[in-house]
Write a structure and sequence with these properties.
By secondary structure, the protein is mostly helical. The chain has six helices and no strands.
């Protein structure tokens, strides 16, 4: 017993923290995933790292570190990011790969403990490719809904048929 308390109430060391990678100096895969989701949304919105940084009171270098997972995103910063990027906080944890299911707080099949919806992961990295992001941005810049629908139908007709 220490200081009159039962049990071990000491705080965890930083290397024992939730999501910390066992190899020193390497970002946690969860932090890398959250960072990739920040980058995805920022890019889909056509927003530069500088502009996002200004909106949050950060430098673009700090935004880069968040996007690479080098700097962990705290709860208040995640809240600010969700407001600036106009997404729910859960967005940053969507599509969590099954490989992270061994981390504390993440259940099997990519579902994050505490979130009601299932978080099914994509089998590839299609949504994170620059080509995909540029295509989506260009598509939504088409102001005429009829033209946009025709472009959509054209692209669908050029690919392989539905499985």
């Amino acid at each position: 017993m220490q200081d009159g308390f039962k049990g071990d109430l000491r705080m965890a060391r930083p290397d024992q923290a939730l999501g910390a990678d066992k190899e020193v100096g390497r970002p946690s895969p969860i932090d890398v995933h959250v960072g990739s989701r920040i980058r995805l949304r920022r890019t889909l919105m056509g927003m530069s790292q500088e502009r996002l940084g200004e909106s949050l009171g950060l430098t673009f270098q700090q935004v880069q570190k968040y996007e690479r997972g080098v700097n962990r995103v705290g709860a208040s910063r995640l809240f600010d990011l969700s407001r600036v990027l106009d997404v729910p906080i859960s967005f940053f944890f969507d599509d969590m790969p099954d490989s992270l299911s061994g981390h504390p707080g993440v259940q099997a099949r990519g579902r994050i403990a505490g979130f009601a919806e299932s978080q099914d992961a994509f089998g590839d990295d299609t949504l994170n490719r620059r080509e995909t992001l540029e295509l989506v941005r260009a598509y939504y810049r088409i102001t005429d809904p009829a033209v946009r629908k025709r472009v959509f139908e054209l692209i669908k007709s050029m690919g392989p048929g539905e499985p």
